[in-house]
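Project channel, design review

CF: Before we commit to the Solimicrobium silvestre constructs, I'd like one complete example in the thread so the newer folks can see what an input/output pair looks like. Taking Sensory histidine kinase/phosphatase NtrB.
RD: sounds good, go ahead.
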Amino acid sequence: MERTASFAGLDLLASSVLVLDGQGCIRYANAAAEDLLKTSLKSLSNQKMADLFMNGQELQHLFEQALEYQFADKRQDLILERAGHEPLQVHSIFTVLDNSDTPVLIELRENVQQIKQDREDRMLDHSQANKELIRNLAHEIKNPLGGIRGAAQLLEMELPERHAKELREYTQVIIKEADRLQTLVDRLLAPHRLPHIVGDVNIHEVCERVRSLIMAEFPLGLTIQRDYDLSIPDFRGDVEQLIQSVLNIAHNAAQALAERIELGDAELIFKTRVVRQVTIAKIRYRLALDLHIIDNGPGISADIVDRIFFPLVSGRDGGSGLGLTLAQTFVQQHLGVIECESRPGVTDFRVLIPLP
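CF: and here is what came back for Sensory histidine kinase/phosphatase NtrB:
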């Protein structure tokens, strides 16, 4: 079906629009609808709207109500399931038209807030499961490590004098590797410790402390811009944990900017704002801190972007994969959450923490 002049204006809309005939078949779909449904207008034309989805009976019911003039327009949130595709979470608006050929218009808007909430719920569920797994695994590793190290020390003491020097190299390898694993285990267990030094936290003092640390390590080729809302109030928290969280994010970003640092145009931005009526972990807060740490690096690989807060997941050779896990856990202990959006040229970590 060709795009007709009578519907051409609908292509200018950002929301998806479908126009149906009296049998519920699609007579027109604007460009946004083609994009949403991943299908061309030619393929959509004359298909029954309800047949596009596995649970299309709900759409059919609303369409029949529209034909019977039970409403002039009706709004409803829907989850539309399609074979081979992610479910579409949309806010639908059914409108009755004064036109016998095309009596019903449907507008579909992606329910961004619901999608965001579902993603956050999944992240929290995964985070909790990972915490339990890592904690149990760390305890299982920690117990025998002490025995291995102690045995190596005793063995070193019993080495015969004439071979002590060369054999001590082997016992020292065992002791040093046991110490290294012990440090790793301690880092795995660290996120489970609750904030222990609670006081008034000024987020800009946190950012300035992190800024000075990053600039000391990367003095050339990196610029850190500050965009602060100085009206943000202090809040109760563990300042050391929050410094560590922001530092882990900023340090990862600085390392990802290695090529741009060599070119001299690497940039980090610390941006603070207040957001109102925000939902975090299914709880509604009147006010929240909205801290953004933005870099102009290459972006996070699509392979790991959904798993970057999982333990031992790293996008850098030699990385431990614990920095962002620690950051997320420390922020969650302040009833907040860290989100991330990334594409080549811009990576934005967003830290949300409720304010009094």
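RD: helpful, thanks. The chain has a mean pLDDT of 82.
CF: The first strand starts at residue 16 and ends at 20.
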